[in-house]
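User:
Care to share a sequence and structure tokens?

Assistant:
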Amino acid sequence: MRKLLFASLITFAAGHLAGATWPAVMRSQASYRLVSPISKARTYLVIRLLDGTPAYRLTCGSHDTTIDKFNFSGDFECQLQTIPADYKRFSTLLTEDMKQSKDWESRASFSAPEVEPPCDRIPDFGALRTFRLRGMRLTLELSHITFKNERQFLRLQSFYFKARVEADPAATRPIAQPPVIDPKWKELPCTISQTVRVHFSH
């Protein structure tokens, strides 16, 4: 009986969290010009609630940087965490996996081949990516990108980075909602993602 009650409580808690009503966030954005590799991870956007309380921080870096308990990957990766940070369940809230086990398991990790034309045009997997979670819509965008070859690998050399956030009451998941894209994007000579499962519409 105790085991059944405990299991029911876990199921209720998980369902409640997934359908939670989250505090509304303040609309904001930030823009930067960056040169890769990023020598040190730093916070690029603090997301505040409507009363001004700092609620989340967007921190970005590259594959050779680490901050707190998070190891950045790719040419450029962003991590979203609460303020104060809570690593008990997710190292980044931008993951789509409720059983996340690796820091790089999110669409917030950008590699040069993913943002090189024509791959940069793929919605949510190219140069413009949207994340819906916790009552907000967060958009990460890379533009004016220049590339370089490094040991026969294509790398980012410089780019403009813009982060935008706005309220989205319909985004009730505690972590990012997986996007669904048109199967037509399979026709491009691109590896759409190496970090998350890609969902295609029927």
Summary: The radius of gyration is 18 Å. The helical segments are 2-18, 112-115. Residues 2-18 form the longest helix (17 residues). The chain has a mean pLDDT of 89.
